[in-house]
Amino acid sequence: MKFHMKTVSSALLACALIPASQGLMAQDKELVIGTNNWAENIAVANMWKILLEDEYGYDIELSNVSKNALYAAMSQGDIDISMEIWLPVTDKPFLEPYKDELQVHDAWYEGTGLGLVVPSYVEIDTIPELKENADQYEYQGSPSILGIDSGSAIAGLTDDAIEQYALPLSQVNSSGPAMMAALDGAYVNEEPIVVTLWSPHWAFAEYDLKYLEDPKGVYGVNETIYWFSRGDFSNDDPWLTEVLNAWKMDDDTLGGLMATIEEVGDPEEGAQQWIDNHRDIIDKWLAAGDKTN
Fold this sequence. Notes:
Structural class: alpha/beta
Keywords: Cell membrane, Membrane, Signal, Transport
Signal peptide: 1-26
Low-confidence stretches: 1-27
GO molecular function, one term: amine transmembrane transporter activity
CATH superfamily of the largest domain: Periplasmic binding protein-like II
InterPro entries: ABC_Gly_betaine_transp_sub-bd (IPR007210)
Order of helices and strands: HHEHEHEHEEHEEHEHEHEEHHHHH
Pfam families: OpuAC (PF04069)
Number of domains: 2
Distance between the termini: 33 Å
Oligomer: single chain
């Protein structure tokens, strides 16, 4: 086969203009990311899918499975990475059977929260104060705590809180969107309301909220979110390992990402919009991979 020197020279010039880190990653690389239906999990998984596919030539599959299935599949090599493991308490039982086959990497979010939340404009600051001010927190004619589905962990903890603090309020269980709609309506009118919430959640980027102090520790302690992988992943992809280890988010950045997705109504479109508006943050994460080249 004959090649024209001009064609070859042009091709070489084009390759020379590609940054070294991106050039090394430009080859197709398949990656399965395990996900679940938590809002923050869907948000960050779609963010990384867009970044790695559009800018570094990866072929990403998002595999939405239950937690038990995720850990088992990753231990067998069918899932490469997952963006979210809560430690030291929440996800320890899922990790324990596979701790020799899986690797927990660096933290990307510190200080998770779980508990009863009120708008910052209300005057109470602790759960015991709800007992004295229950009449202010009426919902449909009865003092109430608005929660999510009755089978959730936070719903069970809220039942415990009502019992341990002897609160004269009932928990009203519904869907997450219904709870958030009630919060939005009360917030707009600056009315008292108490809901069950957790961090990270997009609500903290949209509203000025506060956790009620929990002196009995019913809702437990704050935890840390890490990313994790099959055991040999860091050897197979040292570049992405360094990049994900450099990845850090807080209530403002993660809450903003989730709020954008909520507003747009589509995880990929919302993540893309957030990426376009936060290149300075993202470029710092990506630059961490340069030292592996």
